[in-house]
Amino acid sequence: MPARALPQRGGLRRPARPPRRRRFGTVWLLLAIFGGAVASVLLLMVGALLLTFASGILPGVVVGDVNLGGLNVERATQRLQTQWDTVVLRDGERVWQVAPATLGVSLDATATAQLAYRQGRSKGNSLQALLGRVQVTPIIAVDADTARLELERIAQQVAIAPVNAGVALEAGRAVPTPPRNGRALDVGATLALLQGAGLNGQTLPLAMREVAPEVLDASPLVAQANALLSNPLDVRVFDPVTGDSIYWSVAPQQWGSWLSAAADPASPIGLSLRLQNAPLRDYLAGQATTVFDPSRTIDLDDAVRRVQQALADGQPQQAAVVVEHLPRTHTVAPGQTLTSIAWDYGMPYLYVQQANGGLTSLSVGQQITIPPADTFLKLPVVPDKRIVVSIREQRTRVYENGQLIWDWPASTGINDSPTWPGVYQVISHEINAYAGNWNLWMPHFLGVYQPVPGSDFTNGFHGFPTRGGGQLLWENSLGRRVTYGCILLSSTNAQRLYDWAEEGVVVEIRA
């Protein structure tokens, strides 16, 4: 019989199943139904809220920090007029507040309220005005001249000064430090923003510009800084009233961080070392607050200038600052008179009278003003020379660099024309001065103070005077009160003092 061919393995195939259809259509249908329902609900809610606020501003509408939600136009206008009272000037995280009128800004409250009412009632922002927050730009008018003046006034306040490259102390050695840009207010650009659409609610972003420092590399000054930073910065604080000095010492690690470089055309390398004003000023102010009683202070501008000059001279250890004195208040005690109070404070009584509006009578418990103890120190003080007169001892003592160099007998004023105690200065030199009231010629006259405010009459030092045809007076009176307010010395000593004491030397007259 004929042989049958056997089927080859794998030759039979099962019929393919039709692809299974995924039932996504149902899911999408359900989602569409759900989304439509949510949208309908939202639309109903928006419609309901719009109906609720039909006569009022929508709840999310604000002008600056003033919330106008729920108010009608009239009440919104009133609220803006009372609460929109500040403009915030902003530079990044830094802010300043000014009154709108100061900046030349006036708000049209009615037009702004009407604009706020329209928010959310046009296409596209209803939901945000209802459920979120919509900031309305206020409608304002700007007085450009007033705005420019105010912006120019605050320009210094908002500026950040550039920092020149400098030097700092690291591990005991000076190293160069990098420069830093500053920031300055662009008044014109800020004014343009204000006049345009730059006022967002109550905030005006300031247009600032970068300011480059003058010195970008302080490497040539490192060697000089290393030499200076081997010592502390010693500031001598001199009180001309007491004659005392104290020293404020700043360690190199601290004052080295204040160093910077400044362009200096007079320097061979075109640079010189400077101290940054801000930390130096802060240090001096802090010391003054800590050290002084309420009657004393320092002129910070002058103190900073003096320390800077000492550094420029290459001698930062020789910086000297002068103490200033302030007015004092005195409470009148029983038995005191204007004259006795002035004498005790060391002040011609007419100056105390003048400081109190021409006061002529006193009552117990009354408070009066005593002028500052340094009232008569108008010239730059010579710190290392001092003349001390003792009325009680009738002596004149002369000091230089803290050392007594002369101790002489003297004569001061009689009771009817006294020499007033106080702290004064040498204010004039006259080789032979004339006193018309007494027809006296006074050799080697050193003017010290004017006992009458505003007069040309001056008390001072002089030698034995002459009268008429050359009659020499008071040769045998040294050590007794015989003058009309001046301090009498022998003619020889008067000439010595005349040649030694330049104008500005402090004269302390003690009772």
In short:
By secondary structure, the chain is α+β, with helices and mostly antiparallel strands. A hairpin with a 4-residue loop joins β25 (428-435) and β26.
Key terms:
elongated; alpha+beta; 511 residues; six-stranded mixed beta sheet; Ubiquitin-like (UB roll)
CATH class bucket of the largest domain: Mainly Beta
The CATH H-level superfamily of the largest domain is: L,D-transpeptidase catalytic domain-like
Corresponding CATH architecture of the largest domain: Beta Barrel
Q: What percent of residues are in strands?
A: 25-35%
Largest sheet features:
6 strands, mixed
Number of domains: 5
Q: How many individual β-strands?
A: 31
Distance between the termini: 163 Å
Poorly predicted residue ranges: 1-13, 48-52
Structural class: alpha+beta
